């Protein structure tokens, strides 16, 4: 007689917690793990010690920026890949709509509603230099803090490379 | 989106499950974030999925010239039903699938259109 009601209470609590955490991670902030070295040294810097290369970085992604879609140069954002909506990438915004961005071969104007993203580690990063400007509607959130590993906990700085971008 | 939707506005029901499970098919009316302005949600009809060959009239007001394009991987081609007055993939190109937000399946208002939406007019 006691067990079904205990189970029911546990089920209700799990459902409430699940619903609340889903709302929070969808609208306010969520924790995401970063894989790959395209944003090194900001995330996952290649180190020689065994301890440093064991785990991926965990970062805090805020979703308040999606209310107005106002981003600044140098923001690190999470966005769905234009080629596969299930994949998410983490890169830095280099150019905003209307900017002229210089690539290896020519100068590209970022169209309205799009942004130009690049990884901090230009040598091994699949970014706007391969798939072009990314529509801002694909952005899922902005990375604000590194939460793991403990020796690199801190806020993520906004680093804007001035030399290659000219704003209108 | 005339004549499927009303000139003075509709109240529609859209579901968000089909976009997540990927069960959209050409002919569905979808809502998506505009690639030109991320705060704007627009309603268009899905014409082609990735890999499809889409033939469209480039400028129906002035000429009959058609163009054929293959929809790139991860993208879809959307067009409004009223091609004479619609800004859609013919203007801003194929749209990444991640911008699709939902599928419209029911018209609530105006009362005379209550029910599921009409298929694409020929």
UniProtKB/TrEMBL annotation, chain A:
Alphabetized, the UniProt keywords read:
Hydrolase, Membrane, Mitochondrion, Mitochondrion inner membrane, Protease, Transmembrane, Transmembrane helix
Subcellular location(s): the record lists: Mitochondrion inner membrane
Biological process GO terms, please?
protein processing involved in protein targeting to mitochondrion; signal peptide processing
The way it spans or sits in the membrane comes to: Single-pass membrane protein
Q: What is its main location?
A: mitochondrion
What CDD domains does this protein map onto? S26_SPase_I (cd06530)
Q: Name one GO cellular component term.
A: mitochondrial inner membrane peptidase complex
Has keyword Mitochondrion?
A: yes
According to the entry, every stretch annotated as the Peptidase S26 domain falls at 8-106, 108-148
Keyword Hydrolase tagged? yes
One Pfam family from the UniProt entry? Answer: Peptidase_S26
Q: Which residues form the active site?
A: 38, 91
Gene Ontology MF, one: serine-type endopeptidase activity
- State the family it belongs to: Belongs to the peptidase S26 family. IMP2 subfamily.
- Which NCBIfam families does the record cross-reference, listed alphabetically? sigpep_I_bact (TIGR02227)
Name of the protein in its database record: Mitochondrial inner membrane protease subunit 2
In its UniProt entry, the species of origin is given as Theobroma cacao
TrEMBL record, chain B:
Gene Ontology terms, MF aspect? serine-type endopeptidase activity
Chain segments annotated as transmembrane? none
Q: Which GO terms describe its cellular component?
A: mitochondrial inner membrane
- Grouped into one coarse class, the protein's main location is mitochondrion
Q: Which GO terms describe its biological process?
A: signal peptide processing
Q: Does the keyword Mitochondrion apply?
A: yes
Q: Which InterPro entries match?
A: LexA/Signal_pep-like_sf (IPR036286), Mito_IMP1_subunit (IPR052064), Pept_S26A_signal_pept_1 (IPR000223), Peptidase_S26 (IPR019533)
Q: Where in the cell is it found?
A: Mitochondrion inner membrane
Asked whether the UniProt record includes S-adenosyl-L-methionine among its keywords, one would answer no
Pfam family membership, one: Peptidase_S26
Sequence ranges assigned to domain Peptidase S26 in this UniProt record? 1-57, 66-107
Keywords associated with the record: Hydrolase, Membrane, Mitochondrion, Mitochondrion inner membrane
Subunit-structure text: Heterodimer of 2 subunits, IMP1A/B and IMP12.
The free-text function statement in the UniProt record for this protein reads: Catalyzes the removal of transit peptides required for the targeting of proteins from the mitochondrial matrix, across the inner membrane, into the inter-membrane space.
- Give the matching PANTHER family: MITOCHONDRIAL ATP-INDEPENDENT INNER MEMBRANE PROTEASE SUBUNIT 1B-RELATED, PROTEASE FAMILY S26 MITOCHONDRIAL INNER MEMBRANE PROTEASE-RELATED
Name the family: Belongs to the peptidase S26 family. IMP1 subfamily.
Kindly provide the name given to this protein in its UniProt entry.
Answer: Peptidase S24/S26A/S26B/S26C family protein isoform 2
